[in-house]
Amino acid sequence: MVDHYLLLDKLYSIGLSQNALLWFSAYLHNRRQCVVFHGSQSDYLIVDKGVPQGSILGPLLFSIFINDLPQICSQCSVHLYADDTVIYVCNSDLLQIQNSLQSEFNLVQNWLYDNKLILNKKKSCCMLFGMQHGSPNLRDLHIYFDDGSPLEKVDSFKYLGLWVDSEFSFKPHVDYIIKKTYGCLSSLYRAINCFTFHIRKRLVSQLILPIIGYADIVYMNTSEIHLRPLNVVFNSLCRFVLRCPYRTHHCFMFESINWLQPKSRRQYHWVQFIFKCIYLDCPPYLKQFFVLFKSSYSLRHMQYPFFFVPRISKEVGRRSFNYKAPSDWNNLPFSLKKLTSLHCFRKCLFSYLKTTCLCF
């Protein structure tokens, strides 16, 4: 729970005027709350900590309150999203990883104590990432709380809705998608006779496809073995919408519904993301990877954004953002790269990716 006086101190430190501070003081103090259940109401209690729940300013004030947390970490990087905090370090030496993380974790725990915040130990864990067979073992990593109890070690965890595993295979996330999708589809099948074609298509588009499409540009480059089950899921969704036999060819189903095939659908989201990185606001740490290619020759492709692609020999490196994003953009046709409107770009990109069936 956020201490009101500490929050006012931090608002003062970022330059708020005295009148603004007085307004925020009145906004935070002298609040009461109660619980109403089945017509019965509890006694009122004074709220002397925390930001007002459900308010527009609440998340902003909390973000300001914890915004100085990364400043205490000099050996590790920190990612903040609301009350989810990730501390990470890159190194091939397990001992250095452990020392850096333990040192920074101790500083974070001290910062929480000084700011009167409580660390949720049940939701705290550590994880070791490594794609090579010679990577250090998670069992050899030991991080401790300030009371001496060990931090839980996990092979995968859910961060901001995405299941991340130690080898970046994203298999746990794909399994999660499949389980959740079939659960929703099973519920819809119980009332399939009540829905017309257009309602079935809308239900799937609004209830199920967002589950599959969430963060699909993150896991789109994983192994085809892990992505193949998603093709089966899409086929099941198509059969529900069309109410067609099991042996109906998938190309016919996607053409009838006017949907992109799974791989093209992920590419559709990916290229749109690249477009937003180039033309719209995006994090600087991503935009820095788009470096315009300069040439002394007058080339046709230089009329539109054409970016430098770094030389990378390993296949793993070719999946990285700094290689794949500019490379995929450069490979787009000129008719797409010349567009600067997101609406027009989406429409033309959909037509470009909607390939004709070549299975027969």
Automatic annotation (TrEMBL):
* Xref: InterPro entries: DNA/RNA_pol_sf, RT_dom
Q: Where is the Reverse transcriptase domain?
A: 1-164
Question: Pfam families, per this entry?
Answer: RVT_1 (PF00078)
Extract the PROSITE patterns matched here: RT_POL
Q: Per its record, how is this protein called by name?
A: Reverse transcriptase domain-containing protein
